Amino acid sequence: MDADPRAQAMTYLQVRQPDKARELLRSALAQNPTDGTALCMLAHVEASVGNLAEAERYARMATADADTATRAAAFGTLSRLIGLDAARGREALEAASAAAQLEPEEWRHRAEVSAALADLRDFPAAEAQAMAAIQLSPIDPAERSRALVALARVYLADPAQRQRGYRVMREAAALDPTDPSLQQQVMSAQFTAGHRAEAIGTAFASLRVTPTAAVPPLLARLSVYLLLRRLLGWLLLVAFAVPLLFFGIIGNIGGDAAALETDPALIVRAGAFVGLVGFGLVFAFVLRPLADRSVARAVWRFARRSALAWFDAVMIALAVLSYLTGLVVPLLFVPAVPLPFLLMLVTWLVHGWGGLALKTPSVGELMAQNNR
User: Whole-model pTM above 0.85?
Assistant: First the structure.
């Protein structure tokens, strides 16, 4: 018996090969043009690559399926698609409500209604629907955690409840620590709430248990960004402290007989040496999670595609080269000790500017999260 093309398409969709998934689904639809399940899956495929108009068209076609569950799933997909456009919040709510009416005991549809209400800023009603979703969800940790995510999203959308949403998201993550999509959402919540140390901890914990090919792109990019941000922060601190210590304090002890006046080479060489040691300790401390090969592979895979990561690496290399020059030929390059501070300051500012893009995921990434 031939394998179900829809099952094969789902496999391709999960490993982010939308072209192959699309081909299989269109083949299935050629045999049965009204197959609601295939139409829904094709809507997901088109949404994942940003073809939202086509995705919505397929989802609307699927709402005519004869099977109640398939029709409800189609309305749910339609609600999520329409909900990506803030101006169509009412339409999204209508589609989600239609799904809930078709399957009133299905927790996912209540979660979709909750999301639509939250987008309309009706937080009390959204919270009530999310609570209903939790009550209807099964005991299975994976299902329960996703129901909790629905409630967390309501709180995160409300500025007055954001910290509460962050706590609920952590509770959801604890129920299903091996789900990379869920961990991505937890990390995003932690990042938004300003808990960056915990965000990077969540990221690395997820990378340790997730095959590299299955790591969600947004989670990987945020992991690389947060790792480099922490690294640059510590390097900037070292690069600031070293010239302050040797040029501002130690080098000026003794007045006219100060070492900076009598033996500047010693001060430059000592400062360069301490700077190199400081950088080495920072590398050992911040990059220690990379000792895990699975984490290192995932970080390297995405870091090598990032122009920002390459810029950071070049600037760090220049700072190290500056210290090495001061250590070897101190009198030929006296600025060797203060220069790394300027390099790291520029790098820190550029890195922070580049991180602004990470706070606004693309439509495709948002849809990928909503289609879990």
Answer: no
